[in-house]
Amino acid sequence: MNVLVADEARRILFLSQTYEGSAHDKRIADEEAIVFGSEFGKTVELLQDLGFQGYAPEGAVVIQPVKKPRGKSLTDAQKQSNRELSRARVVIEHAIGGVKTWRIVKEQIRSWCHALRDRVMYLACGLHNFRLQCREILSNVVDEEVQRILIPVG
């Protein structure tokens, strides 16, 4: 299990080391001591799911869904807020899915070398980021080529 941080473009920005077995997300995040600084005057907004309940790193504004109180229901405003957060978190889930396109990440690694697991996940995240970068470059090249064909210069 890893903790993964992605941005709006689905790029992987941070990957924790691999933890065996069932490790709680918050415990992993606490042990990794992720630092969110306000770089260049920007405020970092951290969208986190309920698995990180109580995790509030320094230098980040934590945005988390509202839990339903026991025996009560959420207000319409709270439900709408949760829906909006869910839409934003879909991007992060797509980033995780993009990493898992590399089948080796989904399969059990039967190696005596435990550091291999970290390397495999690290490489899969790098390949995911590289694929996104190539996709962006190729779309720009295709757009330029289509414009060149459709709008003859002359």
Number of beta-strand segments:
4
Q: Please describe the biggest sheet, giving its number of strands, its sense, and whether it closes into a barrel.
A: 2 strands, antiparallel
> What is the total domain count?
1
Beta-strand residue percentage: 5-15%
Counted by DSSP, the helix tally is: 4
User: How much is the average pLDDT?
Assistant: 78
List low-pLDDT spans.
none
Specify the structural class: mainly alpha
Sum up the overall morphology in one term: globular
How far apart are the first and last residues' alpha carbons, in Å? 58 Å
List the defining traits of the structure above.
154 residues, mainly alpha, 10% strand
Describe, in short, the structure shown.
This protein is mostly helical.
3D structure, described in words:
With 154 residues, the protein is mainly α. It has one domain. It is built from 4 helices and 4 strands; from the N terminus they run ββαββααα. The strands form 2 sheets. It has a two-stranded antiparallel ribbon. A hairpin with a 5-residue loop joins strand 1 and strand 2. The longest helix has 36 residues.
Give a topology summary.
Layout: E1 4-6, E2 12-15, H1 25-32, E3 44-47, E4 60-63, H2 76-99, H3 103-106, H4 115-150
Parallel strand pairs: 3-4
Antiparallel strand pairs: 1-2
